[in-house]
Amino acid sequence: MNDSSAPELDDATLAFADKVFDAARQGDAVSLLQWLDNGLPPNLRNSKGDSLLMLASYHGQSEGARLVLQYGTVVQLANGGG
Asked: Which of 9, 48, 69, 82 lies in disulfide reach of 13, CB 3.0 to 4.6 Å?
């Protein structure tokens, strides 16, 4: 189902989002910290509904998971798989 009210994102924004989600998967806490300090929403989710916390946790990145928790991510968020 397409949400027609969602804004279209340009290529640069989509590339940045990919970089953020990769940082969560790879445990790049330095980059995550920089982005979170500069206003990145800790509840940011990808197209599957996976949050930064989920991605860090799925990939065993405890430092990244702790970091997004410190920035107030909601732990009860569900992804597309529930």
From this structure: 9
